[in-house]
Design goal:
Porin, mainly beta, 21 strands
Length: about 400
């Protein structure tokens, strides 16, 4: 069977997770569970949102520029990506209840999974993948309540919508010497929850604990299309398929320390439940001897990510940030694919904020990471080294009220 490949991955993220949900936090290596700063706290810790003194609305985007080079072991032949720019975005709104001061409510719209990876024509791994495009959008209405001056709780319902397009060549040549081609496209949806607790131990120290549940993205009526020689068309009938992909649960423990009036330090530990992604299955409506239903092992492992960041208020106009993150890959040896040429990695981040007006802020952030991974894939026998570099500058505009 020719079509065993991942349906939801990126070349630059831990597994297929994208950590671009808040510009201030991105400048601090995405640490922010115990340090509420703006409306993006709706994502980072719903329990802390009620401790913010002002409401705000913000919109942000993080253009992602990533490239991957593959070098095959036996031949030394290389293949590169020519992927388009990634466009993770977020929109947040947070409102304080005028009648019940301890109550806040808000909404987050963000993209924690998704990108496009595309390899150059004719690359050595074209029978594993030529292009993968994923879009997922989470919509999260949220309520946060401050139980007292030290403790807050909050939760949000998550509804996810998305789509995916996967393409690869098939090792069948037509009369012109061109390889056949397969394209799978589908829409998907799922539901989950994001809940958190915030504890302000003192004026200098605070803690946060959050749980973001697994979201199972179900594909009920995808479309499979095949470009093959006319004589083989009955072997590869166009039709529909079903599948599903788990977006893993994430448990985060965070701490923040206000070292001085102007300096804040935040640290987060993420535990990501990647073991939910053990098998990828495709169920085709039209089966033939060449197009059978498949179950492809992925065998992801649960992992940790460690994040440390600092923020310094230079003046009423300017704040600056630095961060460092270490993420463990969930992809075991023998299971690295062109969609997830993933490895343990260190990410370096920085950022700044400009307080332009009583009601307006601008945030900027920058991430850089470099990843190298050698592997022999047990299913496709693709063997060699993947090298990936990523630069991701981000920006946000905020209105405070």
């Amino acid at each position: 069977m020719f079509l065993t490949s991942g349906i939801c991955t990126t070349s630059f993220s831990q597994g297929y997770q994208v950590n671009f949900q808040g510009q201030k936090q991105q400048g601090m290596a995405s640490a922010g569970t115990a340090l509420p700063q703006d409306a993006s706290t709706v994502f980072f810790n719903p329990g802390a949102a009620s401790f913010l003194e002002k409401g705000s609305i913000e919109i942000a985007m993080t253009p992602v520029f990533g490239n991957t080079l593959f070098e095959e072991d036996s031949t030394g032949v290389t293949g590169r990506t020519n992927s388009p720019m990634g466009k993770p975005f977020s929109v947040y709104a947070l409102f304080r209840n005028k009648k019940v001061e301890a109550l806040s409510y808000g909404i987050g719209i963000y993209t924690p999974f998704g990108s496009t990876i595309q390899y150059e024509d004719g690359w050595v791994g074209r029978f594993a993948l030529t292009r993968l495009e994923l879009m997922s959008i989470f919509v999260q209405p949220t309520i946060s309540y401050q139980l007292n001056d030290k403790l807050g709780i909050g939760a949000g319902f998550v509804y996810c919508i998305g789509r995916v397009n996967l393409q690869k060549d098939i090792p069948v040549i037509d009369q012109n010497g061109e390889y056949s081609h397969a394209e799978l496209s589908a829409s998907a949806s799922g539901m989950g929850v994001n809940a958190g607790v915030y504890f302000k131990a003192s004026e200098k120290m605070s803690f946060g604990l959050t749980y973001r549940s697994k979201v199972t993205m179900g594909v009920a009526d995808g479309t499979a299309e095949f470009t093959v020689p006319e004589a083989l068309a009955p072997n590869f009938p166009n039709g529909s398929f079903s599948s599903e992909l788990p977006l893993p649960q994430v448990i985060t423990l965070g701490a923040a320390f206000m070292a001085s009036e102007n300096l804040s330090i935040a640290a987060d530990i993420n535990y990501i439940g990647w073991s939910a992604y053990d098998t990828l299955a495709f169920d085709y409506v039209n089966n033939t001897e060449s197009l059978e239903d498949t179950r492809s092992a992925r065998n992801y492992e649960n992992t940790f990510a460690f994040r440390l960041g600092g923020q310094y208020k230079v003046s009423d106009l300017l704040s600056v940030r630095l961060g460092l993150a270490y993420g463990m890959t969930p992809v075991q040896n023998g299971y690295v694919t062109p969609e997830t040429p993933d490895a343990d990695r260190i990410s370096y981040t920085g950022g700044l904020s400009l307080n332009l007006h009583e009601h307006f802020d601008i945030d900027l952030s920058l991430l850089y990471t470099h990843v190298e991974r050698w592997d022999h894939n047990l299913e496709t026998n693709l063997t060699g080294k993947f090298t990936t570099n990523v630069v991701a500058p981000g920006f946000a505009l905020r209105y405070k009220f």
